[in-house]
Amino acid sequence: MVTEPIFKDWTDQTSDLFGNVPLNLRHRLHEHPLFSDDGLAGLIETCPRDNYNLVQWGTQGPRSDWREGEIIDLSGGDVLDAIRQGRMWINIRNLPQFSTPHARLLDDIFSELEARLPALQSFNRTMGLLISSPKSRTLYHADLPGQSLWQLRGVKRVYLYPKAAPFLKEEELEKIALTGVEVSLGYESWFDGHAQAFDIKPGDMMTWPHNMPHRVDNHDVLNVSMTLEWFTPDIRRTHMVTMANAILRHKLGFAPKSRDIHGASFWAKAVLQKAFRKTSWIRRESRARKPATFRPDPHQPDGIIELAGTRA
Ligand SMILES: [Fe+2]
Predict the structure, then answer these.
(1) What is the CATH number of the domain that holds 36?
(2) Which of 74, 141, 199, 231 has the least CB density, counted as fewest CB within 10 Å?
(3) Distance 310 CA to ligand 1 centre (A)
(4) Is 275 a member of any domain?
């Protein structure tokens, strides 16, 4: 039960700016018992297999270097120790689905947000937790829902890029909508000269305009971060237009001219994307996991043990 306000430094200006510019705010969830050592360990131990991905990144290179692991006979505390000394991250998805205290916390956060932002009408809210090794990276991407990133442990650098070409091309956003794969934006190192960078520490929370491209580099320390995602009526309409424009461009051969979320053009697109969503042409990336080839173990140098018979 949260009795004090979750945000420590929210002002009237924050309400005016929320969703329009990158914001770095102060919160108190890093002091919440759900995110203590015991809280995190317990969460890992009760997380159903379908709600997490454990990934080892071999080098700081492409996604093709990633491989999947599985927690086998290990306490949550030992999993944290293994991630602390390895090159891994665990992404725990949809906490409220299997943890009532986290579901309550998500409701508390949005009750406070909606009291501070009377125009915010959120739905399909969800909460995830990312626990990542020192120096882990999240590659350049853009997300389709509304987003916020809550730092609980460690320090990471968040780079935010302009929401316009060439940083975010409409065709790329359409591709994300079609495939569900968020890491399909072209990235060039010179983009960094146009980025805003923030080093966030426990007690910091960031949110940014919808669809804004970003990437994240951990400092050399274990990181624990909570992510919240949500939709609003406008975000849903934007998503419908993106999907319809994708169909127009990639299926019907027209270059879409508008991203309006109101008026006749919106309603025509709403009908179009609904019709196509039912066809097999829109392929979603399979959520099927690759077979696990390692398990975490804090007593090994890289924090892992190879699973027998799984590696060539
Ligand atoms: Fe993201």
Answers:
(1) 2.60.120.650
(2) 199
(3) 31
(4) no
How far does residue 142's CA lie from ligand 1's centre (Å)?
6
Report if residue 49 sits inside a domain. Answer: yes
- If you measure from the C-alpha of residue 135 to the centroid of ligand 1, how many angstroms do you get, rounded to a whole number? 17
User: How many distinct structural domains can be found in the chain?
Assistant: 1
Judge whether residue 17 has pLDDT over 60. yes
Q: Is 52 a domain residue?
A: yes
Give burial (CB, 10 Å; 0-12/13-18/19+) of 197: exposed
Size of the chain in residues: 312
The 10s digit of each residue's pLDDT in 250-268 is 777 778 777 788 877 777 7
CB atoms within 10 A of CB 211: 19
- C-alpha 79 to ligand 1 mean position (Å): 24
C-beta separation of 237 from 146 below 8 A: no
Q: How far is the CA of 10 from the centre of ligand 1 (A)?
A: 23
Going from the Cα of 307 to the center of ligand 1, the distance in angstroms, rounded, reads: 31
Residue pair 219/153 in contact by the 8 Å Cβ criterion: no
Ligand 1 centre distance from Cα of residue 73 (Å): 31
Q: What is the pLDDT of residue 171?
A: 82
Domain that holds residue 194: 12-167+182-232+294-306
Residue 195 has pLDDT above 90, yes or no: yes
Rounded CA-CA distance 146/141 in Å is 14
Say how many Å lie between the CA of residue 263 and the centre of ligand 1.
30
- Give the least confident one: 40-44, 61-65, 139-143, 291-295: 61-65
Q: Whole-prediction pTM value?
A: 0.88
Ligand 1: centre distance to CA 63 (Å): 15
The answer to whether residue 245 is domain-embedded is no
**Ion ligand 1: residues, Cβ under 5 Å:** 143
